[in-house]
Structures are given as structure tokens and as C-alpha cells.
Amino acid sequence: MKLLTPTTIGDLQLKNRMVMAAMTRSRAPEDGLVQEMTATYYAQRSSAGLILSEATNISKDAIGSPFTPGLYTSGQVEAWKKVTETVHDEGGLIFAQLWHTGRVGHSVDRSNKLPLAPSAIAIEGQRHFTSEGMKDFETPREMSLEDIRQTILDYRQAALYAIEAGFDGVELHGANGYLPNQFLADSSNHRKDQYGGSVENRCRFMLEALETICEAIGSSKVGVKLSPLGTNNGIQLEDPVGTFSYLIEKINGLDLAFIELARRSPDADLLPRYPIENDVALFGDLVKTSLIANANYDRESGEKELIKGKADAISYARLFLANPDLPKRFELDADLNEADPKTMYGGTEKGYIDYPLLNQKVEV
Ligand SMILES: Cc1cc2nc3c(=O)[nH]c(=O)nc-3n(C[C@H](O)[C@H](O)[C@H](O)COP(=O)(O)O)c2cc1C
């Protein structure tokens, strides 16, 4: 199977083309320190060609959800070192996913400070998970030019910390309606300055963040996740195809290790002006570096996607969550464990490090 053949991403040799996609598991205490069990969780999944870590806050200002880890204090760097060492000991590779949530947050988990965003526009018609239960989204505070400059520096510092913590590289979280995605979208960015308006201006924030990260740690250690047709967290673009075509061409110029493209959920309503084709079919040929295709793939459809030739690797989220030995199971075409939605976010070791390996008896 092509999925089980090696490939190169950046300067790294991957033992297979099965990437573990980033998954927030909400098990970090308030100080954003990953726990001992997090090292076990990732080490169990180190047969993936590459692991993308759960989204990790680049600063205190970046926090949008409780119980999520950070990469902005020396304590957090030390805690992540245990994770990266354990993964490397098991022969795995791991990138840190760098996260700024922008308007997808709530002041109750931000020391009573409003979330920051390109414009003061709240997400409507949805509620947000907070440490005090579900709450309506608040109207965020519009970022000043100084906030933008500081945030880009925070990305840079978090990337440096990631390397210090032993990560093999970083992935900028540019998908799913978080801050860089908010800058791209007409529904969340009404700015009149150089970060709003034209396609070029709306792409500026993400490109500046990527450039700065590349300058700090080297472009072969940097990837980005995009969800061009995704509408999560109130994201809508007037011209998604034009905007993402421009963005991907500019990203090509940065010589990153990879672009991960998350396909639109088949359950999401198709917005009027949005194309019916999926993101990989639409944008795959534009990507000049390694392309990691994501979302809703299984063994057969992942293999088919690789054979089509646009994608170099497939990232799996829920399948890796429930099947630590996923490559082995694909090799043997074995049965798969089902992910339990109740333990996806938050909690203990249950539903985190106790998914059984093939032929492993579950203790009851
Ligand atoms: C529990 C859970 C947490 C997730 N957290 C993140 C995250 O932190 N960062 C991210 O980019 N995507 C996140 N996602 C989305 C996945 O990376 C992936 O794009 C999505 O689940 C589709 O892939 P799949 O069909 O293989 O599950 C999460 C998904 C799940 C199920």
C-alpha cells in the first residue's frame, strides 16, 4: 500500500504516509503544562509517519479554550520535552501545532480579558465551551497594529520554544476559523488598514506569521494547515477560490515543508458561491511542496487519494485517536476501534491512553 511507503517532508524521512492530525484533548491544567499521560498518549501513536500535536497556545493572549497546553513559558517547554523525547525514543516524529484562537474564546478563560480578533465581530448562532459551561460568544476587541505585531512575534517565540522543546518542526494552525483564518474571511475581517479589504491584505497576517516563523527556525521545519472551504466558527469568504489560490501561491514562495489541506465537512451546508468540489481536488495541484490531505479519509479513500497523485500523505485524526497502532491495522486490514465522543475533550486517562492495541485484551 502506498500509505505504508516512506516519503520525505521537509528534511525528514517519514516511515509511512500516515500522519496523525492535530487533536485538542483538553487535558492540560490551568498553567498549560502537558502531563505525563500526554507523553504516553503520543508515544503510543509514534508509528505514524509524523504526529501533529494538539493545538498549542502561543501566548496567554492566544487562549480560547480551557485545559489547552501552551508554548510560552519555560515550564511548558520542559513539560513538552518529556513528550518529544518519548516520541523520539519510540522512533516517531512530532511537530507542534501553533494556535491563536482569536475570537473563538471567552473572557472567563482569559483572566476576564475579551478575545482579540481582526474586527469586533462576534460569532453568532453558536455557543462556546468554557470552564464555566457553554456560553454565548462575546464581541472580541479589534486588534491594533501593535497587537498584530506582538502576535506575530509570539508565533516566532513559540516556534523557537517548540524547537527547544525537541519538536521536529511546527505547523501553523491556519484552519477551522481560528485567528489566521479570521483575517482571511470577509465575515470576520472588516478592517480598513493593510490587514483588511483586498485579498492581498487579508492574506497578509498569515503570510507575515509564516515568514517570521520560517526566519526563526528554517522553512523546512514549518507547515501550515488550511481549510479553504470550511465554515467552522462563522467563517465565510466572498471568493474562497480566489483567496486561497492567491494564498497558496504565496505560501509556495516560502518553501515550507508541507501544506495540510482539510476538506470541507460533507455535513456542512454548502454556501451559495462555494464550489462543490472538495478542497484537495480544487487546490491540490497548486501546492508545490508536500501536500497532506485531511478529513474524512479511511484506509481505502486515503489510499485512493494518494494514487491520484496530488497528495503525498494523508492525515487521520479520529482514527488515530482510537487506534494507536493505526498503520499496523491498515497493513493487516484489521478491525478498528471506534472513537468515543464522550472522552474526546477533557477528562482523565480514560479514552486517552487506554484504547487497545490489536490483539490486546481490554481490562474490565
Ligand atoms: C477531538 C478532536 C480535536 C481536534 N482538535 C484539533 C486541533 O487542535 N487542531 C486542528 O487543526 N484540528 C483539530 N481537529 C480536527 C482534526 O485535525 C481533523 O481535521 C478532523 O477531525 C478531520 O479528520 P478525521 O476525519 O481524520 O477525523 C480535531 C478533531 C477532533 C476529533
From TrEMBL:
Superkingdom of origin: Bacteria
Domain NADH:flavin oxidoreductase/NADH oxidase N-terminal: from-to ranges: 2-332
InterPro entries associated with the record: Aldolase_TIM, OxRdtase_FMN_N, Oye-like
Cross-referenced Pfam families: Oxidored_FMN
PANTHER family recorded: NADH OXIDOREDUCTASE-RELATED, NADPH DEHYDROGENASE 2-RELATED
Record-given protein name: Alkene reductase
